[in-house]
Amino acid sequence: MGHTITLIPGDGIGPEVAAATQRVLAAAGVRIDWETHDAGAAVAEKRGTTLPNEVLDSVRKNKVALKGPIGTPIGKGFRSVNVTLRQALDLYANVRPVRSLPGVEPRFEGTDIVIVRENTEDLYAGLELMIMPGIAQSIKLITEKGCLRICEYAFLYAERMSRKRVTAVHKANIMKLSDGMFLEVFRKVALSYPKIEPAEMIVDAAAMNMVRNANRLDVIVTENLYGDILSDLAAGLVGGLGIVPGANIGKDAAVFEAVHGTAPDIAGKGVANPTALIQSAVMMLHHIGESTAGDRIENALIALYRTEMRTGDLGGRTTTDEFTDALCKRVS
Ligand code: NAI
Question: Looking at the domain 106-238, which fold is it?
């Protein structure tokens, strides 16, 4: 039986990497009826909103979406579509596996970290006000419920994936109430998972440790802002944003998307690396019970990286289409 999945191609390189991913899934023989919806800057001009209701309705109905990046204006303009989508669908767990690929020079051999980032709270709650001219306030909102479900998710994930350690990354030495509560909840949840080693790290030390020796880390669980920053750092350790996938998971829906943004500097040139979205789609295949196809695509991708084929972000000259053609041949 086929699957009906919502596709949001997004802005910038989004449509290019989304089309590449669709082709690879089709070559692997996965039967998907795509419900394609636009969101973001392109649709805002025509529809007066960046996230038309039918996009949310489609994801709610299908329960699974594959999404390209969507641009967010800096400082002013519309609210981030990504944040709105995550909050509206309560996609509370952002899972980002950061693994090195063969032939892509990582900073350390065999890096394999998973960042589990809380996705709906923290400074991303969008609670900001100008107290008076010259004084702005952004509220960091952390709830016990939010801490509990993300810590539970991280330990369950670690257990399911046979991981050994979960490290809570925090700044509870300074933010004693918000991060203090996160840490307290983490310690309580850890007690229910005696086979998984719990560890704790202050966020600035975590950044340094990742750069010095990322292999000491296994699963990281952290709040929204720290997770955002650390996942780009982690991507840098394994070859950049072009290869790192992600998933936004909630109780009733899941949206799979790469860590990278719209890459305006290369959009429309046909040179984007589709690996990150393809790897996000592999996570999606596991989520919908198509693990055989997921494993086939992943193995083909690893085999392709053992060849000379590299897109520009990794120092090569292979175009998006050439890369996708070669991958399709290997999976079909
Ligand atoms: P970015 O990730 O778009 O680009 C950073 C650098 O990485 C650029 O040099 C770009 O060319 C390169 N890059 C990223 N993905 C690549 C790929 N697949 N292949 C080859 N090179 C790639 O980050 P930036 O410039 O900070 O953000 C641009 C826009 O994207 C902003 O409006 C931002 O809000 C949005 N954004 C959206 C995200 C989402 O929809 N989930 C996530 C991150 C940013």
Answer: Isopropylmalate Dehydrogenase (3.40.718)
